[in-house]
Amino acid sequence: MNQVMLSEDAQSQIAPWLKPLWNGFDLNAFPSAVLIYGQAGIGKFEFAITLAKALICESTQGKQSKPCNRCDACHWFDSGNHPDFIALVPETHRKFLPHGDFENDVDVSKKSKVSQADSDGEPAEKKEKKIISIEETRSAIEGLSIGSHRGGNRVILVYPLEMLRSDSANTLLKSLEETPSNTIFILLADRLDHVLPTIRSRCRLISAPRPDRTLGLAWLQDQLPRFAGIKVAPAEIESVYDEQGGAPYDVLASLVARHNKDEKDELTISLQASRYLLQSMALGPRINWLEAAEKTSKARYSVLLATMQRWVSDLQSVMQEGMPRYYPKHELTIHGLAQQARLAKLLHFWMMLIQSRRHESHPLATRIQIEALLSQYQQIFED
To answer: Is the pLDDT higher at 8 or at 214?
Structure first.
C-alpha cells in the first residue's frame, strides 16, 4: 500500500497519534466508504477534513504531498466552496468546517419546527440544530447520480453519524448499497454501538486511537501558545485532561472556553454544569438531587452522563482497591464515599448509566432524566 505523504501544512492538522492511520491509506485505491470511530475529542473530525481535502486534491505530481494546498481544488476546499465536497453535520458543528457560506443550505420546514416543543419548554428548532435532518440528507444524496463537477472524487463527510435521524440513516444506507463511481463516504462516529449494523457492514471500519497521556499532554503544551492570552498551569492542564477522559481536543476546547468565559456558549454551559454536578455527587447521601438536576438541566445530557459515568467509575475503582482515574484530585472525597457506598447498588447504578447512554438522544427532558438518575445515586449510600 502506498503511503500517503503529508505537506507541512497538512502535517500540523493531523494529531500525532492519528498519523499511523493516515500512513495506512492509499489515496489511489481508497474504499468507497470508511467509518472512522473512536472516543469523542481525539481529533477524528479534523483528521477527516484533511483526508477529504487530500482525496479531492488535483495535484498530478505523483511524489508530491497531498493535500498540496496549491491547486484550485485545495483552494476551493479551504474556502468552503468546493462543489464535490459535501458535509452532513448538525448546525452546531458547521463552524468547524472550512470557511463556507451556509445561507443557501436546505431549509427545514418552519412548520415542523414551530408545531413541536420539547418538554423543557424550548422550541423544537433548538433540538433540530443538533441532528442531521432528512431534508439535508436527501439534498446531498439526490445529486450523486450526476458525475462529479471536477471529474475527480466526490467526498461526502457525515459527522456525528449517531446524529442521523432514522429516516436519514435509511436514505444514507441506500446510497452505501449502490455507491456511484468516484464517490467516497467518510463517516465518523463517537459511539459505534449507536450506528446501524447495516451501515457498519457496508463500510471499512477504522478505529481511531486515543493517545497515551504523555503524548496527549505534550500536544496540548504545543497547542496552547497559539491562543493568545491563555496561560494555564501544567497541574490544571493535567486535571482537565483526566476529567475529559484523555481526549486532547476536548481538553483544548475546555481550556479555551474557560478563558473566553462566554456564558452563552454551549460548551461553557456544559463545563459549568459538569463541575456543579461533581460538587453535588461529592456529597454522596447528602446530595440535593432536585437542585442539582435543576441547575444542570441546560447542559447537554450526553456531557452530564459522561461526567456521572467517570465519577462512578472512580468510585468503583476505589471500592475495589484501585485508584481514581478521572478525578484524582478528589481522591480523599472518593475514598470517603467508597466507605459508605453499597457495591451491589453501585453496580446496579452503573448499569443504569450504560443504559441511559444508549438512549442519550431521546427527546425526554434532560431535567427529568437527571432527577431520576441522581435520586438513584443517593440510594447507593443507603442500607
So the answer is: 214
Given a contact cutoff of 8 angstroms between Cβ atoms, the answer to whether 82 and 148 are in contact is: no
Cell of 308: 456521572
Characterise 259 by phi-psi region: left (phi > 0), alpha (psi -120 to 50), beta (else): alpha
Asked if the model's pLDDT at residue 128 lies above 50, the reply is no
4-58 per-position pLDDT tens digit: 444 445 555 789 999 999 988 888 889 999 999 999 999 999 999 999 999 998 8
Range 262-379 has CATH code 1.20.272.10:
yes
Helix axes of 213-223 and 248-260: crossing angle, nearest 10 degrees: 40
The domain over range 8-207 is classified in CATH as 1.10.3720.10: no
Q: How far apart are CA 98 and CA 37, in angstroms?
A: 21
Q: Which three cell numbers stand for residue 142?
A: 439526490
Decide if 36 contacts 57 (C-beta within 8 A). no
Residue-level pLDDT at 58: 85
Is residue 13 classed as helix, strand or coil in its secondary structure?
helix
For 187, the enclosing helix (H) or strand (E) is strand 183-189
Instruction: Give the angle subtended at the CA of 363 by the CAs of 360 and 365, to the nearest 5°.
Output: 90
The angle formed by the CA atoms of residues 162, 166 and 167, to the nearest 5 degrees, is 130
- The residue ranges of every structural domain in the chain are 8-207, 262-379
193/173 Cα distance (integer angstroms): 17
